[in-house]
Amino acid sequence: MLKTTRSHRQFQDFLKEQLQIHYLKRGFLEPVLLQQKALASVWCSDLSKITEFVAHRYSQSVGSIARDPADMFRSLLLMELLHERSIDTWVHSMRSTPIFAVLSGFLPDDVPGVGTFYDFIKRLWMSSSTHLANKVRRPRRKPKKGKKKGEKSPLKKPGVIKRLVDRYLEHPPDFHSRPQDLFQKIFKECFVVPSAKHGILGDISALTIAGDGSSVRTGASHYGKLICSCRENGVFKCRCPRKFSDPDSSWGWDSYREEYYFGRTLYAFTAADSPYDLPVYLHFFKANRHDSLAFVYSFFDFIQSNPDCKVAQCLLDSAHDAYAIYNLLHRYDIAAFIDLNTRNEGNCSHQDEILFSKEGIPICPANHIMAYNGFCKDRQRHKWRCPKTRKTWKVSCESPCSDSPYGRVFYTREQDNLRFFTRVPRASALFKARYRRRTASERCFKRLKEDYLLERKTKTRNSCNWYFRAYSTAMCSHMDAWIKHLAINMRPLILEWSAEVFPAIS
């Protein structure tokens, strides 16, 4: 049963009062100054809405008074900020170092137990099981690796992207209640929306997102535990079902490290115009799930969960170079910035007269690249002229295809070929400048995996904890951005609090 929660302002007053009582009145100023970054993080992050979001997960009339969900969640975020991986160690730290308990919102002599934190995480998970699959299953084989260096695993079924996109466009998916929905809601309302209000996600009315997937390795073994009697009968290579501690993990091919891994794929949308490369959406998939399929599911999920957000541009790597994805983005009036896949390179002909380069640029009959001459808004088409009209190019042609001094003109429309004739021409400086922002997704993953050690020093072995850890590290990235963008400096405020109690010291 939940008690009446306090507002964020009341939590700030609690921080000031408790720090003065346990540290500043006793002359212990240095310990508070050493934790001023953690203090700034909890000072600027309003988590009071969490109690409202999770109220339905508590009994309204039966049971003892529960801990404030905002304080519990804040304490777990603080644990991530301080790079602590064990809840047991974190509870011990709060009991031995009062400032950690105070920053969490607890009294130093009233710190929750270890089991309380584990129960709270499970309460946020909208399912009775912490796994999405049964623990007993057959071992999964490794997928095929890319044929070339740095190439991702190929799709199992050709044409599956088109079929999935066509089905979703005809019958938009209605995402029913999923176990991770509370994590996603807290992340959106308490972190993504405030970041948008601070103006550090770019223009929300014309948002630019960069999508990509990254490998996340699990702490569980891929062998599983034998529950059959094959070995007793002399059979040492059986395919019988085994018991896995992390049954949702599978084998995947990491094209960057060029190695197989056992775990999951974390797919994320990053605000590409954000100066801090902040994530706005996260979702886990099987390790062998292709990025293009993960994008289609994530795109519809993101659009439905963020109806007030208008996506104007989408930046994707060559793994998403499928015509169905171009069609999907075109239907939602989104400009596609997608790198061409080397397996699909080649010229595209038009009426057996004009050829096109691999970047969709028209090539005249004399085998010269035509010059871009702007976009015609009235007819929604791009205009290309004879390369001889560009004096700086110094192009000579013995048999010009037009006698006009203006030179030959050719038009391309996006509807003719969504992949080649993109809304912003591939060869233009604008396309190259915008596509360079796609690396925001790489920097986002670097923050989650390297700075906050998402897949290192962990024994996480179930989907519930994986989702919590992924979202909590993303939340920490937003809090770090707030501190930097708002130039929050807690030192003057701490000295002011110390000055208020200084007469009591003397």
UniProtKB/TrEMBL annotation:
Q: Where is the composition biased (Basic residues)?
A: 134-150
Protein's organism: Sporomusa acidovorans (strain ATCC 49682 / DSM 3132 / Mol)
Q: What is this protein called?
A: Transposase DDE domain protein
Show the segment(s) annotated as Disordered.
132-156
